Automatic annotation (TrEMBL):
GO terms for biological process: isoquinoline alkaloid biosynthetic process. The chain crosses the membrane at residues 6-26. InterPro entries: Cyt_P450 (IPR001128), Cyt_P450_sf (IPR036396). GO terms for molecular function: heme binding; iron ion binding; monooxygenase activity; oxidoreductase activity, acting on paired donors, with incorporation or reduction of molecular oxygen. This is Cytochrome P450. It comes from the Eukaryota. Keywords: Membrane, Transmembrane, Transmembrane helix. The keyword Transmembrane helix applies. It comes from Papaver atlanticum. Belongs to the cytochrome P450 family. The keyword Membrane applies.
Amino acid sequence: MEIHPTAEMLTWAVMAAAAAMVALILTRSRRKEETTSRIPPGPPGWPILGNILDLGFKPHRTLVDFKNRYGPLVWLRLGSVNTLVVCSAEAAMEMFKNHDHSTCNRHLNETLKIGGSYTGTITLSEYGPYWRMLRRLCATELFSRKRINDTAPLRRRCVDKLMKWISDEAKEQSENGVELARYVFATSFNVIGNLMLSRDLVDPKSSKGNEFFNLTSELTELTGKPNLSDFFPILRWFDLQGLKRQTEAKQVQVLDIVGSFVEGRRRQDIEGKQSHTKDQKDFLDVLMEFEGTGKDEPAKISDRNLNTFILVS
């Protein structure tokens, strides 16, 4: 028996489909409202760009205005990346003390992710057994009171060199003045170099000795530049600004230099430390001699992580 659809049947079918569509839209809207209601308040933003244009040329002042308008927690959409801005000490304590496990990992921009080397550092790696191991080593071998007191003569020597650099520069450039920032930065670099490697890394008078210093400065500048891929991750494969390519090239050069420091130390150890005589171990010795004891800790720190840790430090 053949059944032919009538106009009445078609009308009922269209009405049923429309009702189902309306119900689906209402359900999704209700879910979206429920989700949105749990998000802190913030400016509405623009299509695609979000709140990027709202920040203006002085974002720190804009965020103060947002705090006065929306409260201590402000929700921003930077491109396609959602961002929560914490604008008060009380809110920060609530977030980072009572919800520390949820907020302990750092958001990395695209250039910091290159090569996956960030996993070997205490400043960029994810919270877990490896991070806790690095924190323990730093707390006992770098930041303990005894270690700080023991390295006071080392810091004194670096400050004495700083004063000599400034004095010599003042004599040579008596009319033009002295660029203090360059010497202070170089001294800070050498203090860290002596703590980590028992050697100066920078000499303002030597162009060859400044290669590592210059490369790391350029690398830091590249990783800090605004990158479209950070706001629109879908663009990261295109590397429109060339930052990924430039950062990768600089990173290879810097890690090669750091690797030469480590290999030089190993050669000294094989030769019986003839040229490496110190009253106490530096942090490179600690990292190279590390042997994991916990079940989640690595047996040794890999060369890649070793070089990266020294670079970031």
